[in-house]
């Protein structure tokens, strides 16, 4: 199960549309889920609209949360998206066997068994989540809440009985070799201290959500253009 979890306040302002990038992720079999921490007023409305569009194009879910709701929202989103991913996979299998992927068409006993399998797989199946965090200047007042939410997310993933792996990125990047996105951690199942990296982020710059998302898609899809040996943990240029 592969998914990208994007945390942003919306209103990207550099490069390709994040909706286009999310559609590319979906074409690669990667779900894009988005949690928005938006401002009040017209800017917040525009940000919320973009957040919904990204999730829709990426085949995922979106939630708008205040800073106070963020921790609860990120855990709930992760649980629901894992269950949804499993359910979609089971539905595809049912369709290939029965000609229909609708669980409700099964007899009650079989329906209960399918639901049990979905619940079990959601807890025990292998999960990979690429966390992409908006670290642009507009997110600076919200980063304390983001740090707490990420700590709780790590606890939630560690509590699963199945293997959970996380890769972490933020944007914009703060190295001249890649101003769009920076890798903080490649795939790892050692989730104990990943939240500490967010205390050293320098919050500044523009919001290249689309370009950053495309490069994370490239990484999750394991495209050959990506090299895990890139100096300083950076991603190489990605040309669309």
TrEMBL record:
The protein's matches in SUPFAM superfamilies, at most eight in alphabetical order, are given as:
vWA-like
Q: Which domain of life is it from?
A: Bacteria
In this chain the VWFA domain maps to 1-81, 128-240
Entry protein name: VWA domain-containing protein
PROSITE patterns xrefs: VWFA (PS50234)
């Amino acid at each position: 199960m592969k998914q990208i979890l994007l945390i942003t306040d919306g209103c990207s302002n550099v490069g390709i549309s994040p909706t286009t990038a999310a559609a590319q992720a979906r074409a690669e079999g990667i779900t894009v889920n988005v949690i928005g921490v938006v401002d009040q007023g017209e800017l917040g409305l525009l940000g919320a609209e973009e957040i919904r569009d990204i999730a829709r194009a990426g085949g995922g879910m979106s939630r708008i949360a205040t800073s106070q709701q963020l921790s609860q929202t990120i855990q709930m989103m992760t649980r629901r998206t894992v269950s949804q991913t499993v359910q979609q996979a089971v539905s595809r299998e049912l369709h290939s066997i029965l000609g229909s992927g609708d669980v409700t068409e099964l007899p009650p006993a079989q329906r209960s068994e399918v639901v049990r399998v979905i619940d079990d797989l959601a807890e025990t199946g292998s999960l990979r989540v690429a966390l992409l965090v908006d670290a642009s200047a507009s997110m600076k007042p919200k980063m304390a809440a983001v740090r707490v939410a990420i700590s709780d997310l790590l606890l939630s993933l560690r509590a699963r009985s199945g293997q959970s792996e996380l890769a972490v990125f933020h944007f914009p990047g703060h190295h001249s070799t890649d101003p769009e996105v920076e890798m903080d951690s490649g795939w790892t199942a050692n989730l104990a201290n990943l939240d500490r990296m967010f205390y050293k982020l320098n919050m500044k710059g523009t919001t290249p959500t689309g370009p950053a998302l495309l490069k994370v898609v490239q990484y999750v899809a394991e495209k050959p253009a990506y090299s895990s040996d890139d100096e300083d943990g950076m991603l190489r240029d990605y040309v669309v």
